[in-house]
Automatic annotation (TrEMBL):
Family: Belongs to the SecD/SecF family. SecF subfamily. Belongs to the SecD/SecF family. SecD subfamily.
Protein name: Multifunctional fusion protein
Organism domain of life: Bacteria
Functional summary from the UniProt entry: Part of the Sec protein translocase complex. Interacts with the SecYEG preprotein conducting channel. SecDF uses the proton motive force (PMF) to complete protein translocation after the ATP-dependent function of SecA.
Lineage: Bacteria, Pseudomonadati, Pseudomonadota, Gammaproteobacteria, Pseudomonadales
HAMAP family: SecD_B, SecF_B
Description of how the protein assembles with itself and partners: Forms a complex with SecD. Part of the essential Sec protein translocation apparatus which comprises SecA, SecYEG and auxiliary proteins SecDF-YajC and YidC.
Length: 841
């Protein structure tokens, strides 16, 4: 009794902490503002798909950085070669390579020695370039370690510049994080149109001061032609940089007292002011060009020494352009150009609709599951429902403690968790009922039921976690949030099922430990399970039908194929609301903007369109211009048109998604094969893997047949189905393994049929609860979650039927093959090995 009390205290404390962690996320601001900051600082943040906003994925173009490094080194090397009287040709550049031909072959060794001396960093001595002599020329290549160091430094500096620029704009709580090796993810809640932000972040703002070349300079390697910002004039400038823009300490928009036009005034730091005074004193009468991102903004003639450390940039600026330029100069230049390779925008109305949909479908699904459990198990079902409620509270508590972001796929994950969390309770209840039917007392039935169910619960949840962990590793954005939610839900459900539910069950039988235990169920299903069904009698037909359906699914995958979303195809998808616009008008307007290749789909109410445009072939970031072009074409027809949702994915991102999807599915299959091999035996693992492969092909066929969009959410559904399906198989296989140890001489067909029959109630009940939890979302969830909910509903049906009719027949044939080889069906346990050792005289 003391143990019961101590466990109740411990579990109660854990639950209280979890619920207290969830509370700050549920309180209104008026209440949370009165609570201590240390308590309210960890809350669940709504994702952009729920609160509205935009996110931009920027790619750092490090190739320009590498090219600059090669050009700078080549200039340094050619200066040194001229001093050493080594004749050479102008270097040529290609990617991270450069070639410099030496005229006199006898001087090649001297040039190589000189280049290798210069190739080391003067500060830390690290080698920057790999130099080789070949065919009378020096081959220069950026050292790989130096490339990595340059890329890392450039991305880290870019992060800081992006952060400063966004802070200058006054955006509310933008999130700026590094993604991958060369990506920067910017999330901006409440920003419905990120056009200006995209332009701001896509501008390098690299400002340099160059002297205009002297008239006698001619066309040589020390000069360059640079276009003017207005496009009407070009300038011949010295390549040598007179002063870099990093010396600017402040910049502001102002109005010229002479012309009244907007200008940008700037101040230099102390070192910059000193340098600027020196160079202007020595070059009075010469034009000094101010170059911003390789375009000359202005080139005033220096009339006198400028020693005050300040200056003015004038041009044909609008007030907004002058303000933006001042902001860019204050925030500093980006070390490398940033290209927008992914853009997603959700309007605030669409976000609030998503929250309402998620809450409504989630509550209805949970209510249906609770009603089912109460109807089947009565009081014991109530205990399971209390455990389920505690589980959901703990999920929110852990998410709040982690400061996680809740997205629409995350809500779908919580809803799926409701269905899957009941599985452990059903498994425990059915095990206890079996022990009670054998005449054991309440206390003994409870103990034996939990003991026998424990390993099955552990195996089934761990196999699911393998799939979910891979989804987390290979997923991106909301899909990763889905994986986190499911993973947390599985762990908390194990705690509530094994610890909390057991505590409540022990409390309910207090004083009745020696009495018989009765848990209600479905009588006819109990009789069917007890009597047994010859499921493997139709094994040939079952396997043949499954194979034919899988072959047909593969054929559908080839033709007509899947309806791929923009995640995999690249390009732009924009949802448009323009009440007074027709399809023909919209198509004509797009054609005038050279967007005739765009497809237009009407949906919902009149004036609602979905515009799709494939990604153009070209450089990174080119897809981003499609968004502005499409919006411009629409607003020309109706200025008040709205764009509730924008998805733009560049070809590089979509290619990465495709590769990672294949890798994640293969890794999930391999991970579960390995786990089942270790926990069971090779033929068990192979049977489960083959069955899951058949389940997956049928699900792919479902996508092809129904036309449901195959996107990242669909990938989450596939990996969740892998986990769910193998979970189902593990329960059946666990019972087969148990019966093999108890009756190893029993005919395999009979043993398999008995094992399937004894787990039939659990298999059906678990499938029904998972199906009921997702059914409201599948019916009313809309397009946003259709790629997840619909295939999951289909997959639950397929996975359940394959656990009964496909997995065991495959296991039977593999076991017969193993038997012909003279191998045991199971490896001996530690106890069996010890008995064998003791039997040796």
């Amino acid at each position: 009794m003391k143990s019961l009390r101590s466990r109740a205290l411990t579990y109660g404390l854990v639950i209280a902490l979890g619920l207290l962690s969830a509370l700050p996320s549920l309180l209104p601001n008026s209440v949370s503002n009165r609570l201590p900051a240390w308590y309210t600082q960890h809350t669940i943040t709504l994702g952009l798909d729920l609160q509205g906003g935009s996110h931009l994925l920027l790619e750092a173009d490090t190739q320009t950085l590498f090219t600059d490094q090669l050009e700078a080194f080549s200039r340094e090397l050619t200066v040194a070669m001229r001093k050493s009287a080594i004749a050479y040709q102008s270097p040529s550049f290609s990617g991270v390579h450069a070639a410099l031909k030496v005229h006199n072959p006898a001087q090649l060794t001297q040039a190589l020695k000189l280049a290798r001396e210069l190739a080391h960093n003067q500060v830390d001595g690290h080698q920057r370039f790999d130099i080789q002599a070949e065919d009378g020329q020096l081959l220069i290549r950026l050292n790989k370690q130096w490339q990595q160091a340059l890329s890392k430094d450039a991305v880290e500096r870019s992060l800081e510049v992006v952060r400063r620029r966004l802070n200058e704009t006054g955006l509310v709580e933008p999130s700026i994080t590094r993604q991958g090796d060369d990506g920067i993810l910017v999330q901006m809640p409440g920003v419905a149109d990120p056009h200006e932000i995209r332009t701001l972040l896509g501008t390098t703002a690299k400002m340099l001061f160059h002297w205009q070349a002297l008239p006698d300079a001619g066309n040589n390697a020390d000069t360059q032609i640079v276009a003017g910002a207005n496009g009407e004039q070009s300038y011949r400038l010295e390549r040598r940089v007179a002063m870099a823009g990093e010396r600017i300490s402040d910049a502001q928009m102002a109005f010229s007292p002479d012309t009244g036009q907007p200008v940008v005034t700037f101040k230099l730091d102390s070192q910059g002011a000193k340098l600027f005074g020196e160079i202007t004193r020595d070059n009075i009468g010469r034009p000094l060009a101010i170059v911003l991102d390789n375009k000359v903004i202005t080139a005033p003639v220096i009339r006198s020494v400028i020693a005050g450390g300040s200056g003015e940039i004038s041009g044909s600026f609008s007030t907004q352009e002058a303000s933006n330029l001042a902001l860019l100069l204050r925030a500093g230049a980006l070390p490398v150009p940033l290209h927008v390779i992914e853009e997603r925008t959700v309007g605030p109305d669409l976000g609030s609709d998503a929250i309402a949909m998620g809450l409504t479908t989630g509550l209805i699904g949970a209510a249906m599951v609770i009603a089912f459990m109460l109807g089947i198990y009565g009081t014991w079902g109530l205990i399971a429902c209390i455990g389920l409620s505690v589980n959901i509270g703990l999920v929110f508590g852990v998410l709040g403690a982690l400061g996680a972001t809740l997205t629409l796929p995350g809500i779908a994950g919580i809803i799926l968790t409701v269905g899957m969390a009941v599985d452990a309770n059903i498994l425990i209840n059915e095990r206890i009922r079996e022990e009670a039917r054998r005449g054991k007392s309440a206390a003994m039935a409870l103990k034996e039921g939990f003991d026998r169910a424990y390993s099955t619960i552990l195996d089934s949840n761990l196999t699911t976690l393998i799939a979910i962990s891979l989804l987390f590793l290979f997923g991106s954005g909301p899909v990763k949030g889905f994986a986190v939610t499911i993973g947390i839900g599985l762990l908390t459900s194990m705690f509530t099922a094994i610890a909390v539910t057991r505590l409540m069950m022990e409390k309910s039988i207090k004083g009745k430990e020696r009495q018989p235990l009765k848990i209600s169920g479905i009588t006819w299903l109990d009789k069917t399970s007890g009597r047994g069904i010859d499921f493997l009698r139709g094994r040939f037909i079952g396997l043949a039908a499954s194979a034919l359906l899988s072959i047909a699914s593969i054929a559908l995958f080839v033709q007509p194929g899947l309806h791929y979303g923009v995640d995999f195809t690249g390009g732009t998808v924009i949802e448009v609301q323009a009440q007074s616009v027709t399809v023909d008008q919209l198509r004509q307007s797009l054609e005038t903007q050279s967007l005739g290749a765009a497809s237009i789909q009407e949906f919902g109410d009149d004036g609602h369109f979905l515009i799709r445009l494939a990604a153009p072939a070209g450089q990174s970031g080119q897809t981003a211009t499609q968004v502005d072009e499409i919006k411009s074409a629409v607003t020309q027809l109706q200025a008040t048109a709205e764009f509730p949702r924008v998805d733009m994915v560049g070809p590089k991102v979509s290619g990465d998604f495709s590769d990672l999807t294949i890798l994640a599915i293969l890794a999930a299959g391999a991970g579960m094969l390995l786990y089942l091999w270790v926990r069971f035996e090779s033929h068990f693992a192979l049977a489960a893997t083959l069955t899951i492969a058949l389940d997956l092909t049928k699900t792919i066929g479902f996508f092809a047949l129904t036309g449901v969009e195959f996107n990242l959410t669909a990938v989450a559904a596939l990996l969740a189905l892998i986990g769910y399906s193998v979970n189902d198989k593990v329960v059946v296989f666990d019972r087969i393994r148990e019966n093999l140890r108890l009756t190893p001489d029993k005919p395999m067909l009979q043993l398999l049929n008995e094992s399937i029959s004894s787990t039939l109630t659990r298999t059906i009940f678990t499938s029904v609860t998972s199906f009921l939890a997702l059914l409201p979302m599948g019916i009313a969830g809309g397009a946003a979650v259709a790629s997840f909910a619909l295939p999951m509903l289909f997959g639950i049906v397929i996975g359940t039927s394959s656990s009964i009719f496909i997995a065991s027949p495959i296991l039977y044939y593999l076991s017969q093959r193993r038997k012909r080889k003279g191998l045991a069906q199971l490896r001996p346990t530690a106890e069996e090995i010890q008995k064998q050792l003791n039997a040796i005289p």
